[in-house]
Write a structure and sequence with these properties.
The chain has 92 residues and is an alpha+beta fold. 59% of the residues lie in helices and 21% in strands. Strands 1-2-3 form a three-stranded antiparallel β-sheet, with helices on one face. It is elongated, with a radius of gyration of 19 Å.
């Protein structure tokens, strides 16, 4: 028998799943600006203990920032869902 609390948790999880489906393209990493006089934007990713850089140029910088922000947003949603699912497991 589902309690009021478990129904509420399930409702919140469904809402988070719906929000997750709306998140656009994702990229783990950050946009960094390198240079003293001639500052240039790069995308930085640490993978397998190595930092990888790709040159973005001004044209792609905004898109890369958006993808990186989408990743952080998705990660926050996963964290919220984890907490709710832990509560759900305790209740059942």
């Amino acid at each position: 028998m589902e309690t009021k609390k478990t129904k509420e948790i399930k409702r919140k999880v469904r809402a988070l799943q719906k929000e997750m489906s709306k998140v656009g393209p994702v990229m783990r990493g950050t946009v960094v600006v390198i240079g003293t006089r001639n500052k240039q934007p790069y995308f930085s990713l640490n993978k397998d203990k190595r930092t990888r850089l790709i040159y973005l140029g001004r044209r792609k910088e905004g898109l890369a920032r958006e993808y990186s922000e989408n990743y952080r947003r998705l990660l926050n949603l996963v964290e919220e869902m984890t907490i709710l699912n832990m509560e759900f497991l305790k209740e059942i």
